Amino acid sequence: MVAVYNYNYVAKFIVIGDMGCGKSSLLRQFTEGAFSEKTNHTIGVEFGTKVVEADGERVKIQAWDTAGQERFRSVTRSYYRGSIGTILVYDITNRESFENLDRWLSDARQLTPAKSIFVLVGNKADRESQREVSESDGEQYAKQNGMLFVEASAKTGEKVEAIFLDLATQIVSLVRSGEVNPASPDSGVQCTKPQAFRSSTSSAAGAGSRPVNVGSSGGSARFSIGSMSCC
């Protein structure tokens, strides 16, 4: 019997960055729509899931929130492997968390799949009066390193949903274009559609395609979708 799921794809994300920059709060805001002023520091890794609708496909996001403390680094780095989406977080009110981005990015580039999508998130955008990192600094860093960029607030929920939804949309695009193969165990994506459906849908490949465009709308990274092929 073929298993029936209420989603078409499973995608693995990691959330990385310095301790205290709000990674756990971002994930909780996304999965539960909740925020707490008192959040314990993550020990090792924590895990959250949510199903989102991305360009007509239901994608189950499995997000791993990694500890920001150096003593857990050897443990958390093992979770980077097979992650198709990397969310690199800093605190706009903490310049040091921004200056430490290179270390996090270097680890993630080495350990994630070649097609892993990176987004830089300046968290705590609700604390404008305490800002130590300008928005232009964040934009420039993201541009220099080939990442998407957004400032968000785990407290108010501003743009938090968009971070994960846009990543999921981009992943669907990569699968449809054939750049990411869900059949590969290291791709970071699994396809849960029955084989017959996959075959019939993939026959539409080449029927018409358009390029993937990454842009910005209202300060939030947005995407247009590529080819019509399936997994």
TrEMBL record:
Biased composition regions of type Low complexity, renumbered to the chain: 199-209
Domain of life of the organism encoding this protein: Eukaryota
Pfam families documented for this protein: Ras (PF00071)
Region annotated Disordered, chain positions: 183-218
Protein keywords: GTP-binding, Nucleotide-binding
Any GO molecular function: GTP binding
Recorded family membership: Belongs to the small GTPase superfamily. Rab family.
Protein name per the record: Golgi to endosome transport
Protein species of origin: Coemansia brasiliensis
